[in-house]
Design brief:
Elements lengths: L1 H35 L17 H7 L2 H34 L4 H13 L2 H11 L6 H8 L14 H26 L3 H9 L5 H29 L3 H7 L10 H10 L4 H32 L1
Length: 293
């Protein structure tokens, strides 16, 4: 009995540092955000008042909030299928090749490791209306140049293209891990049964066995796309005319430009609920996959 008690004390001692860090750096900040969301606190004030659901009622009538929410969803709707499809195609091409596989893996994964703020500056020069390489190519092809980041009809989609470029390498790595787990004997058996074409083998073997990985990649991509901020801050600052303002940038603007911390906390709560909802989908999909296995 005493041995069991000593083991319990030893276990509690071992997990205590992680538990304390989790409480200080995760639970406490989340709790403070939820509390602030129900107050009228402004950054720098020495007092605050609880206003209940006042911040959330204000958000319901705020066109800027709804614009940022719709921009976030549009951005995600473009980036997720684009990055998933490009990641899958890249993984299939690298997996089927016999030379320079390490080079292509490294080259495609570089945007994931690179600082997105630094890369945003490069993109800004490439998209410059006067001397950018994109407009130079457009002129060569006979099209009129455009001010891509100052045009409200194109700015959000340009950011989405940058998002696809930045994230498809991560998806490629996940798909390559899934491809490596598929037994090669299945492809040999399919070829012996009369399915020599690569597309037929993909439909019969690769795609069904990659389905769990695809669901995981898609949901992870949704969560990552909701977190876009760097490129918006570096390239457009939410403009022109709120055309590229997304939820995280709205939180930043409300909290650190207008100093409305209570309102920023309310938007953060909405953002957390979105991410938690998508995370629950990932958990349920993985649980369903595990039960089917």
């Amino acid at each position: 009995m005493s041995l069991s008690a000593s083991q319990n004390r030893a276990g509690l001692t071992l997990i205590a540092p992680a538990a304390i860090l989790g409480l200080v750096f995760l639970i406490a900040p989340l709790a403070s955000i939820f509390v602030l969301a129900f107050t009228d606190y402004q950054l720098g004030d020495r007092a605050l008042s609880f206003i209940g659901l006042g911040n959330f009622r204000a958000l319901a009538d705020d066109p800027v909030f709804w614009r940022s929410l719709s921009n976030t969803l549009i951005y995600s709707a473009v980036v997720v299928p684009g990055s998933v499809l490009l990641g899958l195609v890249s993984a299939l091409l690298i997996d089927s090749g016999t030379s320079l596989r390490s080079f292509y893996r490294t080259a495609f994964f570089l945007p994931v490791m690179a600082s997105l703020l630094a890369m945003a500056i490069v993109w800004e020069f490439m998209l410059h209306p006067s001397f950018g390489i994109v407009n130079a190519v457009m002129k060569t092809l006979g099209f009129a140049p455009r001010n891509w980041l100052k045009d409200g009809s194109t700015a959000l989609y340009v950011l989405a293209v940058i998002g696809i470029w930045q994230s498809f390498g991560f998806n490629m790595v996940l798909f390559m891990a899934g491809l490596s787990a598929i037994p090669r004997d299945l492809y040999d058996a399919a070829e012996m049964d009369g399915t020599p074409h690569a597309w037929a083998r993909f439909k019969l073997i690769t795609w069904p066995l990659l389905a769990p990985v695809t669901v995981f990649v898609a949901i992870t991509s949704v969560i990552r796309s909701f977190q876009v901020f760097d490129t918006v801050q570096a390239l457009t600052q939410g403009g022109p005319n709120k055309a590229t303002e997304v939820l995280l940038y709205t939180i930043y603007a409300e909290g650190f430009e207008f100093f409305r911390s209570g309102r920023a906390a309310a938007i953060t709560v909405v953002f957390i609920m979105l991410v938690v909802g998508v995370s629950l989908l990932r958990f349920l999909s993985l649980k369903k996959t595990g039960s089917n296995a």
